[in-house]
Design brief:
This protein is α/β, with parallel strands linked by helices and 181 residues long. 32% of the residues lie in helices and 34% in strands. The chain has a domain of 125 residues: Rossmann fold (3-Layer(aba) Sandwich). Helix 3 packs across helix 4. It is globular, with a radius of gyration of 15 Å. The two termini are 17 Å apart. The structure holds 1-O-pyrophosphono-5-O-phosphono-alpha-D-ribofuranose and adenine.
């Protein structure tokens, strides 16, 4: 958790039963609308990653892009999009995974990384961990080294962050929510 974790958490809204009954959707739009909170969020990531000599931020479609792009700009490293199926125009590699609600695939351009590149994988939220793990697999398949996986929100009771750690990756979350919160 970052030093701003409690504050960032306080500006994330919970929308019950969206997009389907039983899901507590953690909505980051109030955080993005709050310029001071958004700056503190990006600063938390800059502070953690500025000395880690990253080559690229691999950010996951779609909300991962919102945090990955300013971080890459600030750190002076590459920005690489990991996109939902069918969105990337060049030669791609792909991974399919299950979600808290449904299935999906993510894709990466096959020339996105050089062998050994040091990569941070970013998304807005970890639930079951399927999306983040699929992205990490794509990066490893393309020769990149996953330095860490980073997110704004972890939902630890859904087991995703534990699963990602069990696969040998570091996980950094700015804040976390229990189902009861
Ligand atoms: O840990 P997981 O169970 O894989 O779930 C986390 C993913 O779910 C959400 O994206 P979503 O698939 O809703 O897509 P979107 O960003 O395009 O809205 C979220 O932004 C993560 O990418
Ligand atoms: N509970 C949740 N809130 C926001 N995004 C999600 N993606 C998967 N589960 C989610």
């Amino acid at each position: 958790m970052s030093i701003y974790g409690d504050y960032i958490k306080s500006v994330i809204r919970t929308v019950p039963d969206w997009p389907q009954e039983g899901v507590n959707f953690r909505d980051i739009t109030p955080l993005l609308q709050n310029s001071s909170a958004f700056r503190k969020l990006i600063d938390s990531f800059v502070h953690r990653y500025q000395e880690l000599d990253l080559d690229a931020i691999a950010a996951i479609d779609a909300r991962g892009f919102i945090i990955g792009a300013p971080l890459a700009y600030e750190l002076g490293c590459s920005f690489v999009p990991v996109r939902k199926k069918g969105k990337l125009p060049f030669k791609t590699i792909s991974e399919t995974y299950s979600l808290e609600y449904g299935h999906s695939s993510v894709e990466l351009h096959s020339d996105a990384f050089q062998k050994g590149d040091r990569i941070l994988v970013m998304d807005d939220l970890i639930a079951t961990g399927g999306t983040m793990l699929a992205a990490a697999k794509l990066i490893q398949r393309s020769g990149g080294q996953v330095v860490e996986t980073a997110t704004i929100v972890d939902l630890p009771e859904l087991g995703g962050s534990r699963r990602i750690r069990e696969e040998g990756h570091n996980v950094f979350a700015v804040c976390s929510f229990l189902e009861s919160e």
